[in-house]
Design brief:
Residues 151-316 form the 3-keto-alpha-glucoside-1,2-lyase/3-keto-2-hydroxy-glucal hydratase domain. 8% of the residues lie in helices and 42% in strands. The chain has a nine-stranded antiparallel sheet with strand order 4-3-2-1-9-8-7-6-5, with no helix packed on it. Strands 10, 12, 13, 15, 18, 19, 20 and 22 form an eight-stranded antiparallel sheet that branches. The protein has a five-stranded antiparallel sheet with strand order 11-14-21-16-17, with no helix packed on it. It has one helix and 22 strands.
Length: 320
């Protein structure tokens, strides 16, 4: 019996084309993924700036088969993308454009990998060179919700208790309000914390700027941001890393509230009663951190070196 043309075509497709296509797909699926370069991962870095240890941070990851990219936080400024990390025979290098420096030259970083340690040199856009060392950053991943301890009040009355100024103090305590009337020293808690819940309220005049540092390493941005689009450098952001989902800042001069939960690296942040960051990972330290020892507890510190600001009703509930 003669086959109709369409039936003959269908048989040819089943006998020859389908198996050929399956073979191609199988071959594609068996192509090995690129092996991770030993440099990949996150690195907590300490830069020796004229004898003073200054924190920094680097993340390296692969893009495609042969390219390494990443992001870098220097000892000043915010996290910035690295478009290419050169790595061969244990030697690494990269460069990024200047951020706040008034220079047309790049910041350049060179280093050598030895096991789980990095060391090298960093040259700023203004031509100064510093040595640095780095270790792999801890994951800080937790498998269970912590049990919470008793709340601790960090602002009360007319005396500053439980805090110390990093520099010449300009902060004053008035009726439970910690007030910085002008740019000056940052204020740091005497006690250090691991996982915690933090409630804090702030009032900031028009055009001023501050920040709340978690464990002294991760800055939650405090700015006069009413009417602005959410971004990495406005209120409620983890500076340089995570933007809030929406901007809920009040008018300059009004009180704003932040409710923060930090477990390991995972952050949830409510601003003025709205969840604007929901259980997101903070990759690494932000600019202005006290240190890069991410595996250790750290203090709360509030920025007083960027303009006038007031804080009140500061209550922290540490994990047991």
């Amino acid at each position: 019996m003669n086959l109709k043309p369409q039936n003959a075509l269908s048989r040819l497709i089943r006998q020859y084309l389908v198996p050929a296509a399956m073979l191609v797909l199988t071959s594609l699926n068996t192509i090995a993924a690129p092996a991770a370069a030993p440099l990949e991962g996150r690195w907590d870095i300490t830069v020796d700036v004229n004898g003073k240890p200054s924190p920094s941070w680097l993340e390296v990851r692969h893009s495609g088969y042969n390219t390494l990219v990443g992001q870098f936080t220097g000892f000043s400024g915010s996290a910035r993308p690295v478009s290419k990390v050169n790595f061969k025979d244990g030697k690494m290098s990269f460069s990024i454009p200047p951020q706040w420096e008034k220079s047309e030259k790049d910041l350049t970083v060179e280093g050598t990998l030895s096991g789980d340690k990095l060391s090298g040199s960093l040259t700023t856009p203004d031509g100064k060179t510093y040595s640095w060392t780095g270790v792999r950053a801890p994951s800080l991943r937790k498998t269970a919700e912590p049990a919470w301890g008793k709340p601790i009040k960090l602002s009360d009355g007319n005396v500053i208790k439980g805090w110390h100024a990093f520099g010449e103090n300009q902060w004053v305590a008035e009726n439970g309000i910690l007030r910085s009337p002008k740019s000056g020293a940052n204020l740091i808690t005497d006690e250090k914390f691991g996982d915690f819940k933090l409630h804090i309220e702030f009032r900031i005049p028009k055009g001023s700027n501050s920040g709340v540092y978690l464990r002294g390493r991760y800055e939650i941005q405090v700015t006069d941001s009413k009417g602005m689009e959410p971004s990495l450098d406005q209120m409620g952001a983890v500076y340089g890393f995570i933007s809030p989902s929406e901007m809920v800042a009040k008018e300059a001069g009004e009180w704003n509230s932040l409710d923060i939960t930090l477990i390991g690296r995972m952050l949830t942040l409510d601003a003025n009663g709205k969840t604007v960051i929901c259980n997101q990972e903070i990759p690494g330290i932000t600019g202005g951190a006290l240190d890069s020892n991410e595996g250790e507890p750290g203090p709360i510190y509030i920025q007083g070196d960027h303009g006038p600001v007031e804080y009140r009703n500061i209550v922290i509930t540490p994990a047991k």
